[in-house]
Design brief:
Layout: H1 2-21, H2 55-66, E1 69-74, E2 77-82, H3 85-94, H4 106-112, H5 122-138, H6 144-162, H7 172-188, H8 197-213, H9 216-223, H10 232-256, H11 267-280, H12 290-303, H13 306-321, H14 323-336, H15 351-364, E3 373-374, E4 379-381, E5 384-386, E6 391-394, H16 397-400, H17 443-460, E7 461-464, E8 492-495
Helix pairs in contact: 6-7, 6-17, 7-13, 8-10, 10-12, 13-14, 13-15, 13-17
Length: 496
Amino acid sequence: MDWIGAILTLLLFIFAIMFLLKKNSSRNNSSHNLPPGPRTIPILGNLHMMDLKRPEKTMIEWSKEYGPIFRMKLGFQEMVVLTGYETIKEALVNNGDAFADRPLIPIFEDAVKGFGIIASNGENWKVMRRFTLSTLRDYGMGKRTIEDKITEECSVLTKTIETYGGKPFEVTTILTAAVSNIIVCILLGKRYEYEDATFLRLLKITRESIQLAGSPGVLLYNLFPKLGFLLGAYKKVMKNEKELHDFIRTTFTEYLQDLDENDQRNFIESFLVRQKQENMKMTHGGYFHNDNLIGLIDDLFAAGTDTTSNTLSWAILLMMKYPEIQRKVQEEIAKEIGDTQPRTDHRAKMPYTDAVIHEIQRFADIIPSNLPHATAMDVTFKGFFIPKGTYVVPLLTSVLRDESQWEKPHDFYPEHFLDSEGKFVKRDAFMPFSAGRRICAGETLAKMELFLFFTNILQKFTLRPPLGTSKEDLDLTPGAGLISRPMPYKTCAVLR
C-alpha cells in the first residue's frame, strides 16, 4: 500500500492551493438537518480512515456510531450511506423515485459514456431498461426456451468436470464459461467452447476489469480523475474496455450485413432493427444508437457472467466446507428427481435445496457495497435532508447480515429459509439483487441458472477438498473488490 500513501501525499500538495481558494459549496448544517458523520480533514475528507480494500467494513463500523443514515466524504465527494433492511427498503422501495438515479462515476463515464443501463439516467435509462427487459423475455428469460439452453449447458459442464476424474482442479474458469454462454446465447445467438481463445480472452478481461473497478487505484481515480495518468489500475481497465468494445463493434457490424427484420435471432439483431426503424423515421435525439448498444452489451455481458459464476464458486466451496449440508441436498435430489435431469419445475418440491441456494446468495454477499444510487430530487428522509444529486450508498451487506433480520447473520445457515416443518419461507431481507427501480434486470435468469447448475452438479458429483486439505482449512474470507469472490481453491468432483 506504499504507492497509495505516496499518491495521497502528492494529493496534499496538488490540491492545497485549490482547497484554500475553494468556497464551501455544501449546504450548511444550521439551515438543513443533514445526516451526521465522521469528522473530515481538508482534501481527503474521510479517505484516510477508510479500508480501501474493503470499504464496506469501515462503513458498517461507522453505522454503529452514527446510526443507519450517515454522511461521509471521500476526497471532495460527499456521500450518504444507508444501512439496515428497514432503512434501505424505505429508501429504494417506498421512496423509489427519489433514490432512482445513478451518480456520475468517472470510470463508468469513461467506459460507457453514461449509456446502457447500469450507469445511465433519465429517459435514456428508462428506454434502455424497457427494451432490455422486453427483449430478454422475447429470447426466453423465465421461459422454457432459455431453460432448455441452460440444461444443455449443464450437460456440457458436467461432462467437462467428469474429465478430471475426481482429481483436484480449479473450477472457476469453466463455471464462468458455462454461465457466460447463457448470456452470450441471448446476445449473439451462439455459444463458445470452453477452450475457445477469443471467449477465454473476453472472460479474462471482463473479470479483471470488474475486480479492478473495486480496487484502491480505481477508487482514487473516481475521486481525483486528474490522477488517471498515474494509476495503473485505471489504465488497465480502459485498455480492457477498448478491447471488449472493439469485439462488440466487429460483431454487430457482421450482423448488419444480413439483417432481416422478420427473422431476429438475438439481442443485437433486435437492437439493430430498432435502430434501423428509428433512422427511417428520421428521429433526432433517438436512443437506439451504437453507444447505447455497446453500453448494453457491456452491462449484460459483465452482469450476466460474473455475479452468477461467483455465486456458484461460493456454492462449491461451501458444499466442501459443510459436507453434511451437501449430503442433505443430494438426498433431496435423489428423492425428488432421481436420475432425471433437473428442471425448474422441481424447485417447488425441493425446499431444502431451495433454502441452501438462497443461503449461498445471502452468505456470499456478492456485491457488498451495492451499486451507488443518487437522489433525483431534494428529499427529507427519516428526518434528514438529502439534496438532489447526492451520491447514495445503499449498503447491501448491511441488509444480508442485518442482525435484526437473521438468526445467525454471520454463519452459513440454510434454516434461515425454512420453517419448523421444513417448508421453504421467503424472507423480506433477502436482497442479493438489490431492490426498487434499479433492481437487477436479470434476476429471473440468474435464479434459474443458479438452481439448474447447482442441482446438476450435485446430482452427479460429490464435492470434496483435495487430499491433505481438511474442511477446516477451507477459507471463507472473501477477496477484495467490487465483487465478493472466494479465495482461489481447488475441488475434487467425485462421480456418485
